[in-house]
């Protein structure tokens, strides 16, 4: 059953927020410096205040950059779920299983009019698995690159600006808690090679409206250390860089950016966002700690709020209910929002099977219902 879900008018999603569940981590995995998968927390990083004045461009020539041209599908997430299910002797109860990034796009859709998205989805044993449509991601990255090339711009190239974000992560984190990190390591932080192949990913169970979700996503750092007891809130830290705010216009842009920061962090239950403000040349000028849960009220208190958190949640809750009705039999489905259009379309692209969304390994391992 294909269909279209209208985004506009968004007024129908206004009002008190549908219920949300606090995300609880039930599993995690790591990619190491070679981007190899490990079913553990080995790549977790510990937050440590960076030095103001640091040069975020430093070391760009030795950047160990992840090659993201390969389509990883949901593989790492599925491996982690598989291990958890075999340990528990039962399948997880999530109705929607996906990367956090996909849900970020959905929650932001009511206030995001320019960017489109494409995802593939399949129903298997009662759960809808959603991946990003890799071909679309590659094409839109290429288009964005072209745009940046065409625009006559001052300042550093976009590759260097993207490096700044990873450099900030390296400057603000340690591989072990402070007390167990050598003075030499801490002092040499600004010279460490930046490598974005390593990642720690949290896998959580959460709920939006009437839907139970399992989301996997990267977390940048932890404030203290992981609680021993499972299911306890974890003091995760999301790291972000942003241009320093020097006037009303900058503030308006920053408030808009806070929507993505908030959605991304809210979905995994990340309580704190540390923003490294930089100047136009990429020098760190200020560091701010922002509590994720306070962002919605900060925005609501502005004279003309550019977005609303409750509305994002209500939109997603209603959309997911509709999605569960729509994706009701086998095959591969496309979930698509064309740029600058007021609706999300869902239609079948393969009549049977699950495409490449689900690995053979995962399908075979699942406990049969
Ligand atoms: P900033 O967010 O500080 O710019 P994340 O914040 O999601 O953990 O991502 C870490 C960094 O990856 C970003 O840091 C940015 O440098 C880079 N990055 C993420 N998404 C990007 C995109 N769409 N284009 C370019 N760089 C991106
Ligand atoms: Mg990150
Ligand atoms: Mg970050």
TrEMBL record:
The keyword Ribonucleoprotein does not apply. InterPro entries: RAI1, RAI1-like_fam. Residues 21-363 form the RAI1-like domain. Keywords: Hydrolase, Metal-binding, Nuclease, Nucleotide-binding, Nucleus, RNA-binding. It is found in: Nucleus. GO terms for molecular function: metal ion binding; mRNA 5'-diphosphatase activity; nuclease activity; nucleotide binding; RNA binding. It catalyses: a 5'-end triphospho-ribonucleoside in mRNA + H2O = a 5'-end phospho-ribonucleoside in mRNA + diphosphate + H(+); a 5'-end (N(7)-methyl 5'-triphosphoguanosine)-ribonucleoside-ribonucleotide in mRNA + H2O = a (N(7)-methyl 5'-triphosphoguanosine)-nucleoside + a 5'-end phospho-ribonucleoside in mRNA + H(+); a 5'-end NAD(+)-phospho-ribonucleoside in mRNA + H2O = a 5'-end phospho-ribonucleoside in mRNA + NAD(+) + H(+). GO terms for cellular component: cytosol; nucleus. Belongs to the DXO/Dom3Z family. This is Decapping nuclease.
């Amino acid at each position: 059953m294909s269909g279209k879900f209208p985004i506009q008018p968004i007024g129908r999603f206004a009002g008190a927020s549908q219920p949300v569940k606090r995300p609880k981590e039930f599993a995690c995995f790591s990619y190491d410096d070679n981007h190899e998968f490990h079913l553990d927390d080995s790549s977790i990083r510990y937050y440590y205040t960076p030095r103001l004045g640091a040069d975020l461009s430093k070391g760009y020539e030795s950047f160990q950059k992840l090659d993201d041209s390969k389509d990883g599908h949901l593989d790492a997430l599925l491996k982690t779920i598989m291990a958890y299910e075999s340990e528990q002797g039962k399948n997880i109860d999530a109705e929607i299983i996906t990367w956090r990034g996909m849900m970020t796009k959905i929650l932001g859709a009511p206030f995001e009019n320019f960017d489109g998205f494409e995802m593939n989805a399949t129903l298997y044993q009662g759960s809808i698995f959603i991946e990003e449509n890799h071909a679309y991601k590659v094409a839109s990255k290429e288009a964005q690159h072209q745009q940046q090339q065409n625009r006559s711009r001052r300042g550093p190239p976009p590759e260097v600006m993207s490096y700044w974000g990873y450099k900030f992560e390296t400057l603000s984190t340690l591989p072990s808690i402070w007390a167990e990190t050598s003075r030499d390591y801490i002092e040499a932080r600004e010279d460490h090679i930046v490598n974005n192949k390593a990642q720690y990913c949290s896998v959580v169970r959460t709920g939006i409206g009437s839907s139970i979700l399992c989301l996997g996503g990267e977390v940048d750092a932890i404030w203290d250390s992981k609680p021993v007891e499972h299911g306890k809130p974890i003091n995760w830290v999301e790291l972000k860089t942003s241009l320093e705010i020097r006037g009303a216009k900058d503030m308006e842009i920053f408030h808009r950016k806070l929507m993505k920061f908030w959605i991304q962090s809210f979905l995994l239950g990340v309580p704190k966002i540390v923003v490294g403000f930089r100047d136009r040349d990429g020098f760190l000028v200020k560091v701010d700690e922002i509590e994720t849960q306070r962002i919605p009220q900060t925005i609501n208190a502005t004279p003309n709020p550019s977005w609303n958190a409750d509305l994002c949640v209500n939109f997603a809750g209603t959309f997911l209910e509709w999605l569960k009705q729509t994706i009701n039999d086998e095959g591969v489905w496309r979930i698509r929002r064309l740029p600058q259009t007021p609706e999300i379309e869902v239609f079948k692209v393969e009549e049977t099977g699950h495409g490449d969304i689900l690995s053979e390994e995962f399908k075979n391992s699942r406990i049969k219902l």
